Amino acid sequence: MSEAELLFFETSKYLKAEDVSQLKSAYAFGQGAHYGQFRKSGEPYISHPLAVARILGKLHLDVRTLTAALLHDVVEDTHISKAEISERFGLPVAELVDGVSKLDKIESQTHADAQAENFRKMLLAMARDVRVILIKLADRLHNMRTLEVMRSEKKRRIARETLEIYAPIAHRLGLNNIYQELQELGFRYSFPTRYKVLIKATKAARGNRREIVGKILEAIKSRLQTAGLDAKVSGREKHLYSIYNKMVEKHLTFSEVLDIYGFRVIVKDITSCYVALGALHSLYKPIPGKFKDYIAIPKANGYQSLHNTLFGPYGLPIEIQIRTAEMHRIAEAGVASHWLYKSSDADLDDLYMKTNQWLQSLLETLSDSADSSEFLEHLKIDLFPGDVYVFTPKGEILTLPRGSTAVDFAYAVHTDVGNCCVAVKINGENAPLRNRLKNGDRVEIITAPYAKPNPVWLTYVATGRARSHIRHFLKTIQYDESIKLGERLLNQALLSFKTDPESINEAQWEKLVRDSGVKSKKELLADMALGKQLPVVAAKRLANPGESISDGNETNGPITILGTEGMSVQFAKCCHPIPGDIIVGFIKKDHGLIIHTDDCPIIANSRKNADNCLGVTWGKDIDRIFKVGIKVVTANKRGVLARVAAEIAKAHSNIDDVIMESEEGYTAMRFILQAKNRLHLAQVMRGLRRIKEVVKINRVKD
C-alpha cells in the first residue's frame, strides 16, 4: 500500500465513509497545490503533509484536524489562499490551517525574535482551538524524523528548539509517545557523539541484563496472580535522553545508572492499583522517598499513575508504574483523548479545561511581555512543569514548577492576589514570601488593599506568570510616576522663565514633542523625570521659542519632596537623607531624581554639572519611614549589642542592617536604622549615649 492508501485504510476504522471521502478530496487538492515541489530528501512535497496526517490518525483525531494536516502548508508554500480552503473544506479547517501556518517573513534582527513571534501566533491560535498545536507537533515530529538531510548547523538549531519548546509542549499536553520521540530525536541531533556512545552502551548492557529483566517480569506476574489481580505487565527500557539526563544531573557514569529498565502494570480499577502496590511491596522492598501517588494528585496534564522504585534482585533498582486501562489511554493520548474518547467522561473534560486554562495563562504572559525575547523566556519557564503540589485554604490543589515560592502561588491564584500579597502562612505558620514550597504544603496568602509588588520578588520567583505580572506592574507604575515627576520638573522650569504652565497651548506642545523626537507629551514628561530630556531646555522652548538657552536654571524654585513620589524619586544610599537635612537633587539618566544630603562627599564632582543639579526641599508633615546610617563604637563587653538593639527599639526605631568590626578592645557597629526625621534620629542617638559602654556615636554619610 502507498502512504495515502495506508492513511485512508487506518482512518476508515473509526471515521465515517463520507469523512474518509473528504480526506481523499483534501489529499488530491494538496497534491495538486504542491505539484512540482520537492523536499530536500528528493521526495515529492506531499509526502510530508501525508505523514503528518498519519501521525494524527494514530491518535484517532477528527476529520477536520486530518484535513487541515493534509493542507497545513498550502497557504504558506503555494498560491492557495485561506478563502479558497474555507470555500472548499469549510471555515473551521481554514482556521486550523491558518493557525499552523508560519508568520509571513518579518523584519527581525535575530532568529530568537522571529521564533518568539512565531510562537505568539501559534499560542493565539491554540487558545481558539488546541488542535492547532496537535498538527504543529505532528509536523515537527515528521520534520525531526527526516532531519538527516539538513546541514549540521541547522540540524542542531532545530533539534535544540525541539528540546526546549516542542517536546515540553507535547509533555504538557500529555502526548507521551510524541513527547518521548521528540526528545530522543532532539538528543540525537543536538549531541550526535554522546547519542552514539550511549546507544552502543545500552546495546551492550541489554544482553547482560536481559535474563535478570525476564526473571523480574515473571516474578511480578506471579505475585499479582497470587493476589487475585488480573493485570497486564510489561517491561521497557528507559529512553536514551532520560538516561543521559540522569547521568548529567547526578554526575554518574553509564555503568552507575542501574535503573535503565522500568515495568508497567495495568489493572482494571483504582482499588486494584493500590492492591497491586501492596503485593509488589511484599515481593521487593520499596526505596524510601521514591513513591509518588499521581492518582490521588494527578499531574497538570491529566496524567495519573502510581510510581515507585523497589530494590530488585542483586540490588538492582526497578521502577514500577501502576495504572488502570483508562489512565493508560490518557497517558498515551493526553489532550487528544478529548476527541479519541467520549467527551462526556468527567476526567477528559477536566483535562481539556485544565489545558485551556494553561493556554489562557500563557496568553496573559504574552500580553504582559514587553518584547519577544522576554515572552520566549517566560514560555520556556512555564513549559517545564515540576512536581510541587500545594493546597489552597479550601483544599484545592495547585500544580507549580519546582522551586516555586509563595509569591508564585499568589499569582497562580489570581493576578490581584499576587499584586496585593504582603505575607503568607504555610501550614498555619507565618513564613517569608520567598520560601520555596514543598509537596503537600497548605498555603494561605495574606493581602492588603494598598500593597504593591516589590522589585526584589523578581530575584526569587520561579514562574513566568509571576515574573511577567511583576515586571508589567513595575513598568506601568514607574511610567505613571515618572510622568507626574516630569510635569513637576517642567512646571518649575517654566515658572523660572516667568511663564504660567497653564498658558501653554496644544500647538506649542505638539511642536515641542515633534522637536524632541518622542511620540507623545507623556513620553516627553517621563523622559524628563528619567534624565533623558532636560526640563530647562523644554521650558525655554515653550516660553521663548527661537531664543538661545540661558542659564535660567539658577532662578528655579525648589521642588518639594514629599516622600510619596514612588520609584521616580530615589533617596541616595550613600548618605541616606531624611527630613530635616539640607538636600539637593540630581537627575540621573534612566533612574529619575536622586536625592542626596547637601554635604554628601559622593556628589562633590557631580555638582559641577548644573544642568543635572536641582534645588529640592522637604515638604511639611511627611509621614513615612526613611533609612539612615549611624556608627556606634562600644567597649567590647558581653551583651552590649543586645543593650544597643533594645535602646534602638525603645526609641521606636528598627534595625535594617548591621555590620560589626572588633579591634583592640572596642567594637564598631554600623547600623542602617529606620527614622522619621532628624528629630527622631536625635532621640535614638540620645538613648544610645546613655549606655555606659558606648564610647562614640555619629551619623555615617559615605
Protein architecture, described:
With 702 residues, this protein is an alpha+beta fold. It folds into 5 domains: 3-190, Hypothetical protein af1432; 194-338, 2-Layer Sandwich (Beta Polymerase, domain 2), CATH 3.30.460.10; 386-452, Roll (Ubiquitin-like (UB roll)), CATH 3.10.20; 471-618, no CATH class; 626-699, ACT domain (Alpha-Beta Plaits). 48% of the residues lie in helices and 16% in strands. The chain has 26 helices and 20 strands. Strands 1, 2, 3, 4, 5 and 6 form a 6-stranded mixed sheet that branches. It has a 5-stranded mixed sheet with strand order 12-16-14-15-13, with helices on one face. It has a 4-stranded antiparallel sheet with strand order 18-19-17-20. Helix 6 (82-89) runs antiparallel to helix 7. It is extended and about 90 Å long.
Structure summary:
With 702 residues, the chain is an alpha+beta fold. The protein is built from 26 helices and 20 strands.
Helix content: 40-55%
Shape: extended
Q: Quickly name the level 1 CATH class of the largest domain.
A: Mainly Alpha
What is the structural class? alpha+beta
Number of self-contained structural domains:
5
Mean pLDDT across residues = 81
Could you give a short account of the major beta sheet?
6 strands, mixed
Alpha-carbon Rg, integer: 34 Å
CATH architecture classification name of the largest domain:
Orthogonal Bundle
CATH homologous superfamily grouping of the largest domain: Hypothetical protein af1432
Strand count: 20
Poorly predicted spans:
103-110, 338-344, 547-556
CATH topology of the largest domain: Hypothetical protein af1432
State the helix count: 26
Strand content: 15-25%
Oligomer: single chain
What is the terminal separation in angstroms? 84 Å
